Amino acid sequence: MNPIDLLIPVAHAQAAAPAPAAPGLLSTLLFPILLIAIMYFLMIRPQIKRQKEHKVMLDKLARGDEVITNGGIAGTVAAIGEAFVTVEVADGVQLRVQKGAIASVLPKGTLKSA
Known about the structure:
The protein has three helices and five strands.
């Protein structure tokens, strides 16, 4: 035995470890597909539903309805145009706002009680 072998261990060849099995195409694509499905049901679908409800509300908008805008201005609908709505916020004070700026329609009598 060589005296250097006592100080430096001799490296012995080891058997090669078996290669890990390659993941199949289905398991590779399963996570992104699952992630897209979760995003659709949690984010996209509810947003589309709210947009449809808002459009229906704007289509049903009539003169005399009490509304509140996205900016927090409350008033009564005085006139309805194709893209704009005239909202009367006080006696003789009317504002023209875009139809999309109407956040919600209030129940009748809400403004008088406030």
